[in-house]
Design a protein that fits this description.
single chain; 6-stranded mixed barrel; 32% helix; 889 residues; alpha/beta; 29 helices
Length: 889
Amino acid sequence: MTPAVRTTCPYCGVGCGVLARVREGTIEITGDPLHPANAGRLCSKGAALAETLNTGERLLHPVIRDRRVCWDEALTAVAKGFDRIIREHGPDAVAFYVSGQLLTEDYYVANKLMKGFIGSANIDTNSRLCMASAVAGHKRAFGADVVPGCYEDFELADLIVLVGSNTAWCHPVLYQRIVRARERRPDIKVVVIDPRRTPTCDIADLHLPVRSGTDVWLFSGLLAHLYRDGRMDARFVAEHTVDHERAIAAAAECTGDVAAVAKACGVDAARISAFYSLFARTERVVTAFSQGVNQSSAGTDKVNSILNCHLLTGRVGRPGMGPFSITGQPNAMGGREVGGMANMLAAHMELENERHRGIVQTFWSSPRVASRAGLKAVDLFEAVHDGRIKAVWIIATNPVVSLPNADRVREALARCEFVVVSDCVARTDTIACAHVRLPAAAWSEKDGTVTNSERRISRQRAFLAPPGEARPDWWIICEVAKRMGFGDHFQHESAHDIFIEHAALSGVEYGGTRAFDISGLADLTREEYDSLEPVQWPIPAGGRRGTARIGGDGRFFYSDGRARFIAVHPRAPVNQATEDFPFVLNTGRIRDQWHTMTRTGLAPRLAEHLPEPFVDMHAQDALLAGIRDGEIVRVITPWGSVALRLRTSGEIARGTLFVPIHWSATNASDARVGALVNPVVDPISGEPEFKHTPARVEPFRVDWYGVLITRDADIEPGTTWWTRVQGQGFHRYELAGRENKAGMHARLQAWAREMLRAEQAGVEYLDYDDAAAGIYRAAVVSGGRLRAFLSIAPSPKLPSRAWLASLFLKDSLADIDRRGILAGRPLVAAADTGALVCSCFRVGRITIADAIAHHRLKTPAEVGAQLKAGTNCGSCVPEIRQLLAAAGA
């Protein structure tokens, strides 16, 4: 058997271990049973990784202004472009914008080049969009950017509080650890704090649907309650903390009693009291938080309001207790370790600290080190827009889609004098703005390390050769550095070379004053680096054993060794709903997609669960707006607008909206949610307010809806509204259009023949026409196989996509299939499995519902035993439970 390569998943911050085998041209991906983060489990995205390794979408060669060039010409152009602008305008006229998708070694050399040799701190990262508030909060409380606990604490806790985290969908493997822990110990309690009733609420004993932006009221109220209830750990507070009196006074002043908190949060007072009592009487509490806390103009204060409660009770860094920041990206933490943010130095050293700058400059033997913080992400692109930054190098990220006020970001890049983009894919909204495009190696081809949410460093190992001329990001950066005249300092020949330099720097003048220390790995040989097992930092010199928890001994990272309480004062989000914009827009991830879909969008099984860009809205709000589920609607904010499918899931409160972040101009006509989001940021962390933008929803008039499925890859529908969905051997387009009523049907028929390429020789054209009803269906069959299908109707009610997809898998259509195509429905009931529920095993809604009825199934476990659905990552279990409830089980 071909030996498996042990590597790490490239998606969320859980950092799951992956086994990859290449056997006779086939790639097999399974979970690594020996990796401590996941013990062999993978979520739907991780399990589908093999489907994303498609070189057809790759950027394969360096390109300058649409002209293919050799590497030397491209690298020289980048170096000369940056050199010229630095010479004419100074080092702060250039910037790097990097990514939590990078490996630590890539991040390290990018930060080294910008801060130590160019001499500017204008390097920031898309981690600013997800983790900056957590970083700032931890630094204020602990004196360092450190998560004190580990994943094992979720299994040891008696109470788990999930705040602003749809863990079931966004961190499914960690969620399953909680589920399995509850199966072993049913007394574990789970509280979910989230404005939406997300699938994570499936395991909640208590759900607090707080108003967006009210977390500081909630946790300040908890702090005051804990103090009044006598729950303060007086010895811990006296010996290991500072300023608890100020924090408690601020909490008491701003929150009053439980009734006042309930009014501010919009939650029943009895629920607030139940949460406070549960937290107070339970020692082993883990409070895990994610983007719902961080992505706020008060995100840093929200983090500190949570940390204050754990400091007051001494529940930090001990088994089964502590605050826990769930990282969004696979290497957001690794990027921070090397200083890959505009306000940091390498190895967790401080940019404003003169001694730290001296340590780094001496270690790097660099001519300078940036002495003041650079521009954070939103401000960085604003500086590009107004011309202060004249050259920007964007690496492994897609800011034209992901940043707030995204239309302005696109405009900024169009104005910019020199834009360089390094990426592994050929088409993104951002790479379309580049003067120079550099082909980077992707996951499966890259070699290096990443650090997950529990501070665990894992190896990411290559098992495929890079296609075309793609190269590792660290190599590209080092080659540009050489051409800028810094070659003596960037003579790295491998990721191993960079890692040991990074590890050595972490131990220079350490003395226990910084949290981050991996100097115990600084003497790794190449063979030892290649075989490095997952390990948690700190890893001090003289050993290679990791550290599971930090702070349990009461030692923190201020000079006096004490943690700090932070007196926080609640404040509402900056932009409130108004008469013109009466709804509050929330944005986030969905179960089976990742970021801007450049990878997950290639996997057919990941496209089927929620295949289209949508806005989720309360059904009563939709009724009053005169719009219906399934129709296309326009969502408008003061910053932009998009057109989306309306969804009324029942998960959302009145007056609020939810839109996923994933779609872009490469796969939808008008769905970049970043264009809607307000650009307000937290004044400390610089993290944007993605969870609270005033908005309105309007009808979006269309005359017809349609679905086009074709094996041809180069179709451009040209309709008023469209979105593209990757299928198994086909592309699917959801469509809607506007037409002049006179002669509309005839024009649509002619357009249908064009889209289906009906005039090709040797094809059979089938069609059904009901002009009076506005219905038209047509298909092209070639060699007995279905080649293309189109259905048009005046409403969104169109043929089952699951049934149509099954027809494209057939080598030859049967007569009953042809008749079904004309009828617009399967003529054999079992042919339609229904909308996808379980991505891991591709089990549809109708299949599950039929099994529940036929076998009288009562629990998700029984459904899993019958169909396997829900038995891998478990993300679909809440939906299975809903189907059971609908059947009266």
